[in-house]
Amino acid sequence: MAGSNPNAKPMDITLKVWRQKDRNAIGQMVTYPLKGISPDMSFLEMLDVLNEDLLLKGEDPVAFDHDCREGICGMCSLFINGRPHGPERGTTTCQLHMRHFKDGDTITIEPWRAAAFPVHKDLVVDRSAFDRIQQAGGYVSVNTGGVPDANAIPIPKSIADKAFDAATCIGCGACVAACKNASAMLFVSAKVSQLAMLPQGKTERKTRVENMVAQMDIEGFGACTNTGACAAECPVGISLENINMLRSEFVYAKATSENV
Amino acid sequence: MILDSRIPEGPLAEKWEKHKFDVKLVNPANKRKYDIIVVGTGLAGASAAASFGELGYNVKAFCFQDTPRRAHSIAAQGGINAAKNYQNDGDSVFRLFYDTVKGGDYRAREANVYRLAQVSVDIIDQCVAQGVPFAREYGGLLANRSFGGAQVSRTFYARGQTGQQLLLGAYSALNRQIAYGKVKMYPRTEMLDLVLVDGKARGIVVRNLITGKIESHSAHAVVLATGGYGNVFFLSTNAMGSNATAAWRAHKKGALFANPCFTQIHPTCIPVSGEYQSKLTLMSESLRNDGRVWVPKTVETAQRLRNGEITVNDIAEQDRDYYLERKYPAFGNLVPRDVASRNAKLVCDEGRGVGASGLAVYLDFADAIKRDSQPAIAAKYGNLFEMYAKITDENPYERPMRIYPAVHYTMGGLWVDYNLMTNVPGLYAAGEANFSDHGANRLGASALMQGLADGYFVLPYTIGDYLAKTLYDKVPVDHPAFIEAEQAVISKNNQLLSINGTRTVDDFHKALGLIMWEYCGMARNAEGLQFAKQEIRKLRDEFWRDVKVVGVNEELNITLEKANRVADFLELGELMVEDALNRNESCGGHFREEYQTPENEALRDDENYTYVAAWEFTGVGNEPVLHKEELKFENVKLTQRSYK
Ligand SMILES: Cc1cc2nc3c(=O)[nH]c(=O)nc-3n(C[C@H](O)[C@H](O)[C@H](O)COP(=O)(O)OP(=O)(O)OC[C@H]3O[C@@H](n4cnc5c(N)ncnc54)[C@H](O)[C@@H]3O)c2cc1C
Ligand code: SF4
Ligand code: FES
Question: Which of A213, B133, B314, B557 could link B310 by a cystine bridge, Cβ 3.0 to 4.6 Å?
Fold first, then answer.
C-alpha cells in the first residue's frame, strides 16, 4: 500500500538511543542502524519498527511513553537531536513525521532530563511531580451537584478564549526538558492563569498560587530565569504571558496573604 | 439466570426522581467505613472517584497511564450534548432522549436513556463551575453547535478539544480529593483480575507497570470505568493503550458481556498510509457540516486518478458523484455515522475509491471556501486542517481531504442494570465500558455525556443503595480468593514469558485486526463470520504456541503488557463474531448483508431481535450462553430509520 506521497523514497537512518535498565541503573547511548524507513511514518511508528526488529532478535525493546498518538494526551516525551519533541515547532513527538529527516541522518533520542523527572527505564520518565503540583491547588473547590446554572455567570468571550489558551497545556513536560534550570514555571503558570482569569477560580486564587508554587519548589524544579526556552519548545504554544501572570498573582497573594 | 434490569416503575419522566428517593442512603458518618475501587480514571472513572470521595467514601483509583489526565477521553474533539435548550430551538429532555433511542436504532433501554438526557443539563453546570472553558458567544453566554446531523444545536464544545477540557475538569476534582486523602491514586497500575468472595465483587489484582509487582486491593464495591474495546481491530481511533482486559477478565469471572458486536465505525478518519500504520486519526465529524463527500462517477476515472494520470482538480463537476447528497437529499452529508461509513465502503468496493490504495473518498471544502472565504473556514476548522496536513503532507485548502471509515467506539460492553451494576453483585461498569445507553449506534457528542452522567450523577446514588445493604466487614488481601487470583495472574504472565516463539505480539494483534475488519467490520454475513470464528481460534492457538515476549515480569515490560491485552482481544474477538452471527438483522453499526432493504439500507427485525444479547462466559473456546433482556418501548414508536 503506497502512502500519500508515492514518490517518497525509503530512508536509511542511524539511531542513537538512551538505554537504561531501571531507575538506579547507569544508562548509555546505544546505536541502531535502521533501513527502509518511509517518510510518511510517524516518529513513533519508526520506533515501533525498531522494536519489532529488536524483539525478533530476542532483545529488549526500547521503552517509551505514548498513548493517543494525536498530540493531545501529553504522554509522548522524547528529546530528539537535543530538542524536546524534536525539530518541528508546535509538534509533539507523536505528531512528528519521518519526512522531516533525511536519508543517512543520525538521530539521537534521549529522555527528558530533569532532577524532578527521574528515569524509570530507557526513555520513560516519572512525571508524577506534575500531578502533585496540581493536587496542591489546581482546582476549584466545588463538589458534585449544587452548582449554579452554567449560564448564570456570563464570561466575556475574550477572557474565556484567553483562559482556554492557558488550559490547553497537555502536561508533557517539554518546558522542563527545554529549560537549562529545569523549571516548571510554564506548566504551573498555565493552570494558575486559567483559573485566575475565570470568575469560578477567583475565590481561591491566592491560596492556589501560593500552594502550587510551594509544591513546585518541594519537587525540586529549578528557578525561572526568563530564558523563554520553555515557550519556544511547548508543543501547544503556551505563552510566556502566563508566567508574568503567575508572578503578579504570586506577588498579590503574598502582599495580601492571610497566611502570614 | 434471570436478567433483572431493575427499571423503576412509573412514568418515564418520573422514574429517576422516584428511584433516587427509593434508594437506601448510607449515613454520612458511616460512609468512611466503606471502600470503593474505581478502575479507570477517564471521564467516567475520574468523575465517579471524585464524587465518591466528596461523599466521604474511601476510594482507590487506578489507571495504566502515568497520570489520570491522559486517559483516552482526552482525545475527544467534537463536543458534549446536553438538553439545555439555551438556543431556544426546540430542544428538550424528551427530544434528546428520542434522538438517542432512534439514533441507536431502538436497541437501548428507554429508562436509561431518559435519565441520561435528564442529567445531561447538570453536567454542563458542573463543568462550568470547575472552570472548564467552554466556547462562548460575544455576550458571554455558552455557545452551541449542531453536531452529527442533530436538528437542534445542543452540543457544547471547547474548540476541537472538548474531551481534554472535560477530563482536566474531572482530573482537577479528583486531585482535590487526592489532596484531601479521600482518594488514593495508583497510576501506571493495571488491573489483571477481579476477585469475588461469596459471589460478590470484593477486590482486584493489579500489576505495577514499573516494578511488575502483583498486588491485591480489597473493597466493598468495584467500579470498572476502563473504556471501550475498539482496539480489538488493532487499527482504530482509540489510544494505543486502550484495551479490554479489565472488562474481559471480569467477564471471565461471571459478568455478562452485552451486545459485543455493536461497534461504531466513524466515517471521517485519515486513511491508512502503510503497513507500519499504528493507529488511525479521526477528523472531527463537524467537518461534514461544510465539507462535501464525493468520489468519481466512474470506475475508469477513479482508476486514472489512482494511477496518477490525472489529479483531483482535473475531474469536472459533472464527473463527480456526491453520493450522500444524491442518495439522502434530506440529510445529505450529515447522515448518521453508520450510514456515511457504509456508503463510503460501498463506493470503494465498486472501485470508485481514491488515493493510492483506493480506500478513501474525498471530503471537499472548495464550495464552502468559495461561499464563506478561506479565513472563515480556517476559523472553524483550522486546527483540524493543520493536523491533516501534518499527517498527510497535503494541503486541504487546495485539494480535498481523503477520508475513510475507521473503528471508533464500542456500544457493547459489560451488561449493567439501571443502577449500572453488572450481574455480579458489587461490580459496576461505567462509561464506554458498559453497554447501557447507545443501543446499536451512538450519536456524536453523546459518549462524553454518558461518561460524566454515569460518574457524577448516577453512580454516587446507586452505589450507596448497594453499600447501605452491605456489612462493613473488610476482606483481608490474604484471603484465599485473593491468593488464588494472584496465582492465576502470575502463572499467566509466566506462561506468556516462557513461550519464546517467533511472532511478535503486534504481529498477532494486526492479524486479528484484519480478520475483524474484514468479516466483523462495516458489513458482515453469516459465511464470513463463521470463517472468522475459525480463523480467530486458529490465531489464538498459534498465539499461545508461538508468541515472543522477552524480559521478565519484575520490570517495566512493554511487551508483557501488550501480550496480556492481546490475549484478551483474541478471546473477545470471537465473542463479537458470535454475537454478530446470532443477530440475524441489521441495526445501527451492525450491518448484516443478508438483511437489507432494496435500497441497501439496514433492515431491522423488531419482532425477533428487540433484545439485549448478554453473553455468559463458559470457558475459552466453549460456546458462550446467551441471555436475552427484552427491550420494551412504551414512549417511542419503532420506525425504520430514514434519512432520505
Ligand atoms: C478520537 C476520538 C474522538 C472522540 N470524540 C468524541 C466527542 O467529540 N464526543 C463524544 O461524546 N465522544 C467522543 N469520543 C468517545 C469518547 O471519547 C469515549 O467514549 C469516552 O471518552 C470514554 O470515556 P471512559 O471514561 O469510559 O474511558 P477512557 O477515557 O477510555 O478511560 C479508560 C480508563 O481506564 C483505564 N484502564 C483501562 N484498562 C485498565 C486496566 N486494566 N487497569 C487499570 N486501568 C485501566 C485507563 O487508564 C483510563 O484511565 C471520541 C473518541 C475518540 C477515539
Ligand atoms: S506548558 Fe507546554 S511544554 Fe509545558 S507541560 Fe504544558 S504543554 Fe508541555
Ligand atoms: S502520544 Fe499523546 S501526545 Fe503524543
Answer: B314
Task: Check residue B383 and give its pLDDT.
Answer: 82
CA atoms within 13 A on the CB side of B554: 0
Counting ligand 3 atoms within 8 A of each CB, the residue from A92, A97, A112 with the most, and so the one to mutate, is: A92
Residue A7's pLDDT is what?
A: 53
Instruction: Report the range of poorest mean pLDDT among A21-35, A71-85, B366-380, B546-560.
Output: B366-380
Number of Cα atoms under 13 Å in the Cβ half of residue B38: 34
* B163 and B55 in a common domain: yes
Domain assignment present for B112: yes
- Is the pLDDT confidence value at B644 over 80? no
**Angle, vertex CA B438, rays to CA B326 and CA B432, nearest 5:** 120
In this structure, the answer to whether residues B45 and B183 fall within a common structural domain is: yes
Q: What is the mean pLDDT of chain A?
A: 95
**CA–centroid distance, residue B440 to ligand 2 (Å):** 39
Q: Is B183 helix (H, G, I), strand (E, B) or coil?
A: strand
What's the mean pLDDT in A237-258?
93
Task: Give the residue among B636, B634, B640 at the shortest CA–CA distance from B7.
Answer: B634
> Do residues B183 and B255 share a domain?
yes
Chain B environment of A5 (Cβ under 8 Å): 393
From CA B293, how far away is CA B298, in angstroms rounded?
Answer: 15
Residue A107: which pLDDT band, with cuts at 50, 70 and 90?
very high
Residue A20 counted as domain residue: yes
- State the sign of the Cα–Cα–Cα–Cα dihedral B286, B291, B296, B297: positive
Indicate which CATH number applies to the domain containing A243: 1.10.1060.10
| pLDDT score at B29 | 93
Domain co-membership, B510 together with B377: no
Q: How far apart are the C-alpha atoms of A29 and A200, rounded to whole Å?
A: 48
Query: Is the residue at A50 inside a domain?
Result: yes
Residue A4: the pLDDT is 46
Look up residue A166 and give its three cell numbers.
492557558
Last residue of a domain, one of A120, A150, A171: A120
User: Is residue B633, in this structure, part of any structural domain at all?
Assistant: no
Using a CB-CB distance cutoff of 8 angstroms, which residues of chain B are in contact with residue A195?
A: 131
Average pLDDT over residues A59-71: 97
Q: How far is B632 from chain A (nearest CA, A)?
A: 31
**Section B443-457 average pLDDT:** 97
Q: Which three cell numbers stand for residue A131?
A: 500531578
The answer to whether position B362 is within a domain reads yes
| Contact (CB, 8 A) for B178 and A128 | no
- How confident is residue B150, by pLDDT bands cut at 50, 70 and 90? confident
Other beta carbons within 10 Å of A217: 12
Q: Are residues A143 and A246 in the same domain?
A: yes
CB-based contact A86:A80 (threshold 8 Å) = yes
> Over 70: is that where the pLDDT of A1 sits?
no
d(CA B293, CA B291): 7
Report which DSSP code applies to A33. Answer: E
- Asked whether residue B618 is assigned to any structural domain, the reply reads no
Structurally, chain A folds into a number of domains equal to 2
Candidates A5, A44, A139; nearest CB to B172: A139
Total count of domains within chain B: 3
Confidence at residue B601, expressed as pLDDT on a 0 to 100 scale: 86
Q: Report the percentage of chain A scoring pLDDT > 70.
A: 96
For residue B237, what are the CA distances in angstroms to B229, B253, B280, B500, B549?
A: 11, 29, 5, 31, 26
In this prediction, residue A259 carries a pLDDT of 58
* Among A99, A120, A141, residue at a domain's last position: A120
Shared-domain flag, residues A98 and A180:
no
Where in the sequence is the domain holding B279, given as residue range(s)?
A: 266-407
More confident residue, B339 or B9: B9
Range of the domain at A234: 128-256
pTM of the shown model: 0.97
A144 closest CB neighbour out of B51, B75, B551: B51
First and final CA of chain A: distance in angstroms?
67
